[in-house]
Amino acid sequence: MGNSPRYLRWLAALCALMGVFGVLVLAIGYQDLSVGRGATIALLLAAAAVLFVLARRLDYPKRK
Asked: Are 31 and 25 in contact (CB under 8 A)?
């Protein structure tokens, strides 16, 4: 479990980046908003938040 927090932070950043990219695609009007696109973006951003919290929890004992 030595690299787990680092991996989770990396994965959270990747999910956040993909979610922001999806928002930008909608913002510039390249594609229209649909239920599937909205759900995908929402899940990517929620997953980024959850993964970041998990990474902090796993890293917490080391910082004491």
From this structure: yes
